[in-house]
Design brief:
By secondary structure, the protein is α/β, with parallel strands linked by helices. The chain has two domains: 116 residues, Rossmann fold (3-Layer(aba) Sandwich); 129 residues, LpxI C-terminal catalytic domain (Cytidine Deaminase, domain 2). It is built from eleven helices and ten strands. The strands form three sheets. The chain has a six-stranded mixed beta sheet with strand order 3-10-8-6-4-5. Strands 1-2 form a two-stranded parallel sheet. It comes from Thermovibrio ammonificans (strain DSM 15698 / JCM 12110 / HB-1).
């Protein structure tokens, strides 16, 4: 299942290198069209049509199934565009946190005999090791803010609120909610002015099959443009896209 962004494309490139055949279930208006060139078959589905999705997966019975890419969480709140199966599914959940929804979908797939697997072995090259710095090293002041912010980000992520915090002078300026990482950064920058840092973390017990933090050049450029001084991500639990372009950026990216 390919949501938004480049992560599904990176997965497909790895699968092709291994000589594996891949069926991609793509979401109309959301999934990167590049998946067409890298997949053996693409099944396009309208977003949030869970009934159609389950039927198409059951028809094909893949040996392994992976969930990759972003899908907006807002639909779980306003229910716009959802089919009856999706509404019924949401109503049965204990809450509508992102992880609850995704684990619920995994359980529904596994009831149908489809095993949802961890894609980490396909994407290992995108994970950063602890202490790794991309770009110029940060100043001591920026490093302290990044370390402070990372601890806050881990707590927020573990509560399934969001993955991102904006910090300045060891003060939390903004916390990501349903709006997503980039909008959180914009809000934090508007409140803090120049000199802020951004930290993105995984849940303490992160299931690497689902909702793994991902950053790329778009986020790095946004931080630069708004006057940010650095970005910290969680080592071994965050996928970094566009590494070569990030290396030429003006801000340090640290794995903590």
């Amino acid at each position: 299942m390919a949501g938004a962004g480049k992560l599904p494309v990176e997965f497909l490139k790895s699968a092709r290198e291994r000589g594996e055949a891949v069926i991609t279930f793509a979401l109309e208006g959301i999934t990167n069209p590049e998946v067409e060139e890298l997949s053996d078959e693409v099944v396009w589905i309208k977003p949030f049509k869970l009934g159609k999705f389950f039927k198409e997966v059951e028809r094909r019975r893949p040996a392994k199934f992976f969930l990759l890419g972003k899908v907006e969480h807002k639909a779980a709140v306003d229910l716009k565009g959802l089919d009856l199966k999706a509404i019924s599914f949401l109503m049965k959940l204990k809450d509508r946190k992102p992880q609850t929804i995704i684990i619920g979908i995994i359980e529904e797939l596994e009831k149908r005999g489809v095993k949802v697997a961890n894609p980490e072995s396909y994407l290992k090259r995108l994970l950063l090791t602890k202490g790794e710095i991309i770009g110029k090293p940060p100043s001591e002041e920026v490093l302290e803010d990044l370390k402070f912010g990372m601890e806050i980000a881990k707590e927020i992520a573990s509560l399934d609120i969001g993955q991102t915090v904006v910090v300045k002078n060891k003060t939390v300026i903004a916390v990501e909610g349903i709006e997503g990482t980039d909008e959180c950064i914009k809000r934090g920058a508007a409140l803090a002015g120049k000199g802020f840092v951004v930290c993105k973390a995984a849940r303490r017990e992160q299931d690497m099959r689902v909702d793994v933090p991902t950053v790329g050049i778009k986020t790095v450029k946004l931080i630069e443009t708004l006057g940010g001084k650095g970005l910290a991500v969680e080592a071994g639990k965050t996928y970094l896209l566009d590494r070569e372009r990030v290396e030429t950026g003006k801000i340090p990216v640290l794995a903590l």
